[in-house]
Structure formats: C-alpha cells, structure tokens
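Could you please review the protein record set out just below?
***
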Amino acid sequence: MQNTRLNTLVDRSARNLSAWLNNPWRRVSLLFLSWLFGFFLGSAVSTTAGATAIWDISAGVASLVAVELISRFCYRRPAVRLPAYTKQFLGQDMLNSLKQGYIYSLFLDAFKLGS
C-alpha cells in the first residue's frame, strides 16, 4: 500500500487502540460489559419470544444455533500445535463472554419460571 496520510492515520489509530486495550483492567471491564450485554440480550429474547407464544420454538432454535456457532468459533482447535500459553483475541473473548451471559440469562429465566 502507498504511504498516504489516510493510511498513516489508520495505522496510528490502530496502534493506539491496541495499546489502550492491552491494559488488563480495560480488558476485564470490556469482557464484563460484554457479559452484561449478553445477559440483557437473553432477557430481551426470552421476554419477547414468551410474550407471543408463536415465536417460542423459532427463538429456541435460533438461540441454539447461535450459541453452538459461537462455541465452535471460540473453542476450535488450531491445525498446528502452538505453545501452551496462547493469548486469544479480545474480540473472540468478548464474543464468548456475550454467549455466557446469554446462556446464564436463559437459565435464570427458566429457574424463575419454575420449569
């Protein structure tokens, strides 16, 4: 690529964002916010699907497929053997945290309803 001002600006912004996200407290806070958003999303989906009894089965199937695809993406094994300590990407960890909050919300709603 040519070294234009726009390219330089994008590269510098990406480096600054990467350096900002390398702080462990910011990483933990982003993961916690992702978990809370997943919890909210699970509550919203179960409430919306439960309000109209027509969408119960479709929402359940869509939730199952989404959770399994996220699990497959987050827990897939690499083709080559890597060292014991490999750091995951923040986006992948946030997606997994969102999934965990979503599942926890659905379990909590199921316990509240007594089913």
